[in-house]
Amino acid sequence: MTDLAAVKAALKTQAVETPSWAYGNSGTRFKVFAQQGVPRSPKEKLDDAAQVHAVTGVAPTVALHIPWDKVDGPDGYTDLAKHAEERGLRLGAINSNTFQDDDYRLGSICHPDATVRRKAVDHLLECVDIMDATGSADLKLWFADGTNYPGQDDIRARQDRLAEGLAEVYARLGEGQRMLLEYKLFEPSFYTTDVPDWGTAYAHCLKLGPKAQVVVDTGHHAPGTNIEFIVATLLREGKLGGFDFNSRFYADDDLMVGAADPFQLFRIMYEVVRGGGLTAEVAFMLDQCHNIESKIPAIIRSVMNVQEATAKALLVDRGALAQAQVAGDVLGANAVLMDAYNTDVRPLLREVRDEMGLDPDPVAAYARSGWAEKIVAERVGGQQAGWGA
Ligand code: AOS
Ligand code: ZN
Ligand code: ZN
User: Fold this and answer.
1) CA gap 307, 305 in Å, rounded
2) What is the pLDDT of residues 201-222, one digit of tens each?
3) Which residues partner with 215 through β-bridges?
4) Terminus-to-terminus CA distance in the chain, angstroms?
5) Long-range contacts made by residues 280-284, C-beta under 8 angstroms, separation at least 24?
6) Which of 59, 72, 91, 377 could form a disulfide with 53 if both were Cys (CB 3.0 to 4.6 A apart)?
7) For residue 385, which ligand has an atom nearest its CA?
8) Which residues contact 374 (CB under 8 A, 6 or more apart)?
């Protein structure tokens, strides 16, 4: 039997972090379809994120991306953090960018030229300075580094440069700060990627120390990869720092989490629950781009999709499951898991929201709020996010 009160309590405390770049215009390399009313500044991105938190109650932090969210002045970032706080938000992970400058054609911290490596590491160190100012706990690192052709560069030397650069940044981390290393199978490099998989990320994080952990972006694996196994393993080793949630049909599609494969999301969340990962130490971040759909409603829907998968995972009758597993009852064990997955948790989540003093239907609450009309009327010349530029 599952304890419904405990399930509800867990759902009320789960926090999903939304990415600043999802609020701006983004697209593919073919076309960016500009939407009206999108934010013109980092502060306006936070204003939109506050709407998502207001209707869901579980999206209190926002990930920033530097330089897309760069602000000027000595107090720029403390001021931004204050803006967030005034709206009931906090600033979340600081995402670095070592992929947009011409200098990075052959890589950033793995580049063969030490001058370029210096520039990349300096940027990462600057991101830690920003974390000090914003109160952010996490530095999220994703490297586009890699090669396109066999022989182009020395695979092992690139790993050495990576280790050296990461170590310098790791040494700069303060108390309560972490480094979250994200892996990605391919793109933009197509022959080798310097952090292509969880094993490489894990090996570097293990060497670096306890403040270095791995990020699992759900769109960064080969088709058919058993992501929940990776999650279970990383949690077991104390190395799961967080998720970049999104959905994929083909590659790094960055579609709404839970849209393409809600069953996979459930299986992932079950391993999170099973591994005790439903705590503040695992960051549940979204990493998505909303290219053709309305952005704020899509982000609200994504947060709800994470909640639904979490609710189902929490509903798994762990006692009955363990019994069936020990008895070797293959079909029985599978049935326990499927029973939870096939439960319609929407009434439960409506109850949870009602108990939190929220509208049980966040999408409808947002539509009624008038925010969408307000931003279209007030914001002219909205900003493009970095993606799809
Ligand atoms: C890139 O493919 C990665 O998913 C990154 O996590 C992310 O989208 C980017 O760094 C935005 O900050
Ligand atoms: Zn990502
Ligand atoms: Zn990605």
Assistant:
1) 5
2) 999 999 999 999 999 999 999 9
3) 182, 242
4) 51
5) 280/15, 281/241, 282/235, 282/240, 282/241, 282/242, 282/243, 283/17, 283/92, 283/93, 283/138, 283/180, 283/215, 283/241, 283/242, 283/243, 284/14, 284/15, 284/16, 284/17, 284/242, 284/243, 284/245
6) 59
7) 1
8) none
Q: Which two tokens stand for residue 174?
A: 């303060």
* pLDDT tens profile 148-161: 999 999 999 999 99
> 323: phi > 0 → left, psi -120 to 50 → alpha, else beta; which?
alpha
Contact 257, 290 (CB under 8 A): no
- Best mutation site among 99, 182, 197, 253 for ligand 1 pocket (most ligand atoms within 8 Å of CB): 182
Residue type for position 285:
M
Is 332 part of a structural domain of the chain? no
**Is 95 a residue whose pLDDT tops 50?**
yes
Give the 3-state secondary structure of residue 341. helix
Rounded distance between C-alpha atoms, residue 238 and residue 232, angstroms: 10
Residue 22 per-residue DSSP state: G
Tally the domains of the chain: 1
383 lies in some domain: no
In this structure, the residues whose C-beta lies within 6 A of any atom of ligand 1 are: 21, 65, 95, 142, 182, 184, 217, 244, 252, 287
**In this predicted structure, what is the pLDDT of residue 389?**
41
Residue 280 belongs to some domain of the structure: yes
Kindly report the CATH number assigned to the domain that includes residue 96. 3.20.20.150
> Which residue from 28, 194, 244 has its CB within 8 A of the most atoms of ligand 1, so it is best to mutate?
244
When pLDDT is averaged across residues 376-389 and rounded to a whole number, the result is: 74
- What is the band of 68 on the pLDDT scale with cuts at 50, 70, 90? very high
Show the tokens assigned to 222: 């080969």
Band (163; pLDDT cuts 50, 70, 90): very high
Q: Is residue 317 part of a domain?
A: no
Residue 80 has pLDDT above 60, yes or no: yes
CA 64 to chain centre: 11
* DSSP letter assigned to residue 214: E
| pLDDT tens per residue, range 234-285 | 999 999 999 999 999 999 999 999 999 999 999 999 999 999 999 879 999 9
Side chain identity at residue 118, one-letter code: R
- What range defines the domain where residue 209 resides? 15-311+360-378
- Position 166 scores a pLDDT of 99
